[in-house]
Backbone:
């Protein structure tokens, strides 16, 4: 049973205040948001930091709900993924990891790279061009704005990584940082 | 006209559309799983209202938070309001919420409807 202690130590070392592993639904999203909010309220986190964390969390969690692919539906449920929040003196770090079909990797990777090349104004223009585009929501109910919005709200580059799983799936990791320092963020 | 009064929940906003009392507002949080389904009746209501609107209409948005899927639908609500004569949007934002202020400004640049900004 040493893995329990090891996991606990890892969580403390990584300053993780919340880890959720499992199936993601709107109900889970609401619970995770409520827990994170309570946690931030309990030590009187600044309201603008709290709003940004909440915002980035929602987009991240709803992306998983809509797009994560399961390794094995029978064992792990339909969109099994991991979501974590780390709290440091100077920032919150929100990370997520989920499997996705290999064929989606190039387009997601391109989109994230494109976003990371843009400054604040560039992100605003991209956001406006997507929102006023004639396409409605995707069949999965997304607006195609999640990553752009995460980049805008966090004010920092999106860090990401793709790890091959097998001939069908790739593990996608995403890391977002939200500064707790007043006047930080931006570019 | 029929009154729409949808109480807010932890992931959907409160919506009041009342022609007789001249109250039109969307407030609270908007992060529904299916944003299109939530906003569709609101847009239909406005399309009906637009045929015989009050002489003036102040449509209030007082949102604490909305997700990106909702933002697309909020733009659709605003676009439907473009057809209402004598309409004005009153966009409330918390005084220290720059993101919500900026979101309102961006919407005001995307539609042809007068906006008034207020803090709470």
Residues:
């Amino acid at each position: 049973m040493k893995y329990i202690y090891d996991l606990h130590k890892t969580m403390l070392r990584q300053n993780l205040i919340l880890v959720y592993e499992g199936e993601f639904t709107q109900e889970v999203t609401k619970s995770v948001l409520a827990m994170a909010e309570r946690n931030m309220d309990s030590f009187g986190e600044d309201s603008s930091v709290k709003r940004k964390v909440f915002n980035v969390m929602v987009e991240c969690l709803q992306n998983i709900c809509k797009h994560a692919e399961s390794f094995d539906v029978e064992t792990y449920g339909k969109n099994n993924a991991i979501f974590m929040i780390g709290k440091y003196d100077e920032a919150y770090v929100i990370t997520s990891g989920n499997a996705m079909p290999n064929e989606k990797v190039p387009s997601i990777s391109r989109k994230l790279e494109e976003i990371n090349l843009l400054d604040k104004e560039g992100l605003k223009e991209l956001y406006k061009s997507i929102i006023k585009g004639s396409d409605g929501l995707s069949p999965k109910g997304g607006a195609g704005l999640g990553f752009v919005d995460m980049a805008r709200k966090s004010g920092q580059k999106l860090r990401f990584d793709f790890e091959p799983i097998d001939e069908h799936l790739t593990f996608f990791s995403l890391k977002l940082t939200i500064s707790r320092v007043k006047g930080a963020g931006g570019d | 006209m029929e009154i729409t009064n949808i109480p807010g929940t932890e992931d959907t906003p409160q919506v009041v559309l009342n022609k007789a009392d001249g109250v039109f507002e969307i407030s609270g949080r908007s992060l529904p799983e299916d944003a299109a389904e939530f906003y569709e009746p609101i847009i239909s209501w406005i399309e009906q209202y637009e045929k015989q609107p009050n002489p003036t209409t102040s449509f209030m948005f007082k949102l604490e938070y909305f997700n990106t899927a909702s933002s697309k639908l909020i733009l659709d609500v605003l676009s439907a309001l473009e057809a209402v004569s004598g309409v004005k949007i009153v966009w409330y934002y918390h005084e220290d919420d720059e993101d919500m202020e900026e979101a309102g400004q961006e919407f005001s640049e995307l539609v042809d409807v007068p906006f008034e900004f207020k803090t709470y």
About this structure: The first strand of chain B starts at residue 4 and ends at 6. The beta strands of chain B are 4-6, 14-18, 23-30, 57-66, 87-93, 115-119. Residues 34 and 65 of chain B are 16 Å apart (CA to CA).
